[in-house]
Structure formats: C-alpha cells, structure tokens
Design a protein that fits this description.
Blueprint lengths: L1 H30 L5 H23 L2 H4 L4 H5 L6 H24 L1 H10 L11 H32 L6 H14 L5 H22 L3 H12 L1 H4 L13
C-alpha cells in the first residue's frame, strides 16, 4: 500500500504539480534580482529529484529500475549491440561534435550560444553557479533517468493502467517533455523526442546506466559553450 501511494503521488507531482511550479520558477528566474536565484533553483531541483529517486529505490527493487520492463523481452526486444552501438555513436556524435566545432570556431561558438539564448535565464554565469550547475547535471542524469525511464515507463506499461510498453514509453516521454516547460514549446517537443531516443537506448543496451551517463554528458556540455564566468557576487557585509 505504501508503494502504491508513493507512486500515485509521484505521478500527480510529475503531471500536475511540477509543471505549475516550473512555470512559477521560470518567471522568478527571468525577473528576480537576487544574485543567488539560479544557485537556489539548482539546489531545489537537486533536492526534489534526489528525494523522488530515493523513494523509488525504497519502494521498487533496484534491478527493476535499472533494467527494461519484462514486456520488452516478451516482445522480442532485448540488448542488441547491432542497435545499441550505432544509436549510442549517433547520440554521442550529436552531443559532442557541435561542442568541438564551437570550441574550435568562433563563428560556430557564437551560433551555439544564440541557440541557447531562449534558456539563458537558467544557465550559470558565475564560477559558483557553474559548480552547482555541474552538480545539477550529474544529479539530473541519475535521478531523471531513474524517475522517467527506470520507473515511469514500467509503471505505465505494467502498473495499474496496463498500457503496454509502447504506450508507456510514449506517455513517459510526453511527461518528460511537459516537465521541461521552461524551454518553451519547441524545447518541450525536442525534449520529448530525446526521451524516446533515450528509451530506445535503454532497451537496446538493457541497462539504465548508459542513458544515465549520456544524459549527464548532454547537460554538462553547456558549460563548454558558455562565455567566461563572471565574478561571484560579494557576500553580504563584505
């Protein structure tokens, strides 16, 4: 019963509560004059995701969170190097090559920065913010994969709703996109598409650790494209 309540509450949080909270946080990040507003936002995000992941690890056997749902095997979908290697190579190339080009070419770097302008309000600007953003990227890489790929797909596919693997994977990707509302409509659609690709990688490798590592890498790469950090704000009273 406890696991049922925890899982139902988490689903409501992801589908209803978080999108509303994210909308409020987006407005605050865009308008606040608090020099620590981004660091506090990073800290809150790390905290809620860590709590959610911990609750799942306490209520679901870890082997179930880190391996695909059983229905995948029944459908003949299992670990496949022939699928996993090209998929992983494509994702790594798509994540790393633009960064390498931007680092080597000022014009490419400027184009990459312009592409990030729509989410500039959430990106780090000072050295302290960069450290917290790095911590956030690692935490999100682990926790979001546990929440959205490890748990939500299985819960939708095999839980009370019995939607099946395909519908569960698509709906989990839609929720993932919904929970990235701060990126705007285009960003939400792109994030949902990325979630589907991560799901395919999860199924093709048979382990959640590969999507975890790739997710963290994708988020961390922003640090290589940002302008040099600004000085940290002076402490009160200094």
């Amino acid at each position: 019963m406890t696991a049922t309540i925890v899982h139902a509450a988490l689903l409501v949080f992801l589908v209803v509560v978080f999108p509303i909270w994210d909308r409020h946080e987006t407005r605050r990040l865009k308008t606040s004059t608090d020099p620590l507003v981004r660091i506090r936002a990073y800290q809150v995000t790390i905290a809620w995701q860590a709590v959610a992941a911990a609750l799942l690890l306490a209520t679901v056997p870890a082997r179930l969170l880190f391996t695909p749902p059983a229905e995948a095997a029944r459908m003949g979908i299992g670990p496949s190097p022939a699928v996993a290697i090209p998929l992983l190579a494509g994702l790594l190339g798509g994540a790393v090559l633009p960064v390498l080009l931007a680092r080597a070419n000022p014009a490419a770097r400027e184009r990459a920065r312009k592409q990030m302008e729509s989410i500039a309000f959430v990106l780090p600007r000072t050295r302290a913010e960069r450290l917290w953003f790095a911590a956030l990227s690692l935490a999100v890489g682990v926790c979001e994969e546990i929440i959205f790929r490890g748990w939500l797909i299985r819960w939708l596919a095999e839980g009370p709703l019995h939607l099946g693997l395909i519908a569960g994977g698509v709906l989990a990707a839609a929720v993932f996109g919904l929970d990235h509302g701060y990126q705007g409509i285009a960003g939400m659609l792109g994030t949902a598409l990325l979630a589907l690709v991560m799901t395919a990688l999860f199924l093709a490798t048979g382990t959640l650790w590969v999507p975890i590592a790739l997710h963290a890498l994708i988020d961390l790469r922003a640090l290589l494209l940002l302008p040099p950090p600004r000085p940290d704000p002076a402490a009160p009273g200094s």
